[in-house]
Amino acid sequence: MGKEKRHLLKDNVEKAREEQADASEQFSSVVERIKAMYGFEGGDLEAIYDKLSSDYRACEERADAVRDRIDKVERIGADLFQEWESEIATIENAKFRAKSRASLQDTRTRFARLQRSMTRVEASMDPVLRNLRDYVLYLKHNLNAQAVDSLKREVADIEAEVASLIADMKRSIQEADAFIENM
Fold first, then answer.
1. Contact 181, 11 (CB under 8 A)
2. How much is the average pLDDT of 157-161?
3. Domains and their CATH numbers in the chain
4. Which of 2, 43, 122, 179 has the smallest number of CB atoms closer than 10 Å to its CB?
């Protein structure tokens, strides 16, 4: 009975890890696109905006996928722990019951670490997305070289935010790997 939820949890933690890795790549890509924009030499600003806007939408989609997967991991984890707890209550052998309870507690502790790490990633994505959205919208409303030049100062802040987000994602991916390894 519990084995199915355990496998579901493991599979979804693996998928959450993959979603975060994909999102990390997408966020890195949008920063590279922004930085490349500053090599702009009188080309088509609207085409640059279109690419940047597309990259931003892809970041939003990746962020939504990460959030959805984290929610799924949390739901499956809660279901698994509830089922495990109720099954422990039915174990009559005191030694088995104690070992099962210890295993449950250890798994809950590791899951809580993973959950905190994923929550940090989830919280880190929103300010980055807001900043990227503002950047893209400002560029949309001011498709001229002067606007591009004025945004140059903002790119360092965005780059720092994305670097911090990616570092959070890497830590979360490492937590996922550790959790999976011990499942």
1. no
2. 88
3. 2-181 (1.20.120)
4. 43
Q: What does the chain come to in residues?
A: 183
Contacts of 103 (CB under 8 A, 6+ apart): none
Report residue 36 as tokens: 């490349």
pLDDT tens profile 60-87: 999 999 999 999 999 999 999 999 999 9
Alpha-carbon distance 87 to 72, whole Å?
22
- Model confidence pLDDT, tens digit, residues 6-65: 999 999 999 999 999 999 999 999 988 888 777 655 567 788 888 889 999 999 999 999
Residue 56: partners with Cβ closer than 8 Å, 6 or more residues away: 30, 132, 133, 136
* pLDDT of the residue at 119: 95
DSSP result, the chain: -HHHHHHHHHHHHHHHHHHHHHHHHHHHHHHHHHHHHTT--S--HHHHHHHHHHHHHHHHHHHHHHHHHHHHHHHHHHHHHHHHHHHHTT---HHHHHHHHHHHHHHHHHHHHHHHHHHHHHHHHHHHHHHHHHHHHHHHHT-SHHHHHHHHHHHHHHHHHHHHHHHHHHHHHHHHHHHHHT-
pTM over 0.85: yes
User: Closest Cα to residue 107, out of 178, 14, 16, 17?
Assistant: 178
In single-letter form, the type of residue at position 10 comes to: K
